[in-house]
Amino acid sequence: MTDNPPVTSQESAKRSLEERLQQAPVKPVPDDGVRVFSIGTAFFVVGYVALQLARVRWGVPDWWYTVALTGIGIGLIAIGYCAWRRKKRAKDAAHGIPAPTP
What we know:
Elements: H1 9-20, H2 34-58, H3 62-94
Helix pairs in contact: 2-3
């Protein structure tokens, strides 16, 4: 006979959840985000220009302009942040400070 205590359903569920939530062995993407946000912002600019051209013909709702301008604004802020972070990481690497790990 074994001396193991009986396993409750709560313990079994917790163990099962921990087994399912293990981190996959995947390397992080080596991208700083500037290119991704630049492409997304460019799409919002193209969308805004298309809305301006379609204004008379299709009667575009005003909130669409707000969405396009907000996307452009957030994209510009994100590009600035990612460029700053890239410079900071390059500067830290020059001083021997390792990049943070996710």
